[in-house]
Specification:
53% helix, Glutaredoxin, 8 helices, single chain, alpha+beta
Length: 174
């Protein structure tokens, strides 16, 4: 799994995301800030859920997995969301993804091979099947301690409020 934060954190935020989904991109930095702000109290998990309607989403997921194979998943995750408006409209996303790999200091030749690997495809497919099996249909879908947040409660402020409440309720009263 792609995890930030400790396994024993009292609150887990699980996101099913699509790198080409604008609302997912809008939540990327706020979720990163939440993890930084709450530290040991929050674990963040990212699952791939590329939507068929997004032409380059699956390929972006493969790029993130190829970066993961060199220990840079979260850096590629952040870069893909930050540059979403550029690559999502590009005719040749591969050249951009290869350039991003270079920016992140990855071995670009290995990155290219890993993007096309069965391992990358299997990981993305596995995440997508898992999401579908628990009712995920759209992105972003966010679970907080295994409870789905309402699609109408996915603004950065709403997600922060939900995490705030979950962390407060998870802390033992003294």
């Amino acid at each position: 799994m792609h995890v930030l934060g400790p396994n024993d954190a009292p609150v887990t935020l699980e996101e099913f995301g699509d790198f080409q989904c604008p609302p997912c991109g809008a939540l990327s930095d706020p979720i990163n800030r939440l993890q930084q702000d709450y530290g040991s109290h929050l674990r963040v998990i990212f699952h791939h859920f590329p939507l068929a309607a997004h032409q380059h989403a699956r390929e972006a997921a493969y790029a993130a997995e190829a970066a993961h194979m060199q220990g840079r998943f979260w850096q590629m995750h952040d870069l893909l969301y930050r540059e979403q408006s550029v690559w999502s409209k590009a005719a040749d996303v591969r050249s951009l993804f290869n350039a991003y790999a270079g920016i992140l200091g990855l071995n670009v030749e290995r990155f290219k091979k890993d993007m096309d690997s069965e391992k990358a495809r299997a990981r993305v497919d596995s995440d997508q099947k898992h999401g579908a099996s628990i009712g995920v249909q759209n992105t972003p879908t966010i679970f907080l301690n295994n409870k789905a947040l309402a699609p109408t409660a996915l603004s950065p402020a709403d997600v922060r409020a939900a995490v705030d409440a979950a962390v407060k309720s998870a802390k033992p009263s003294s």
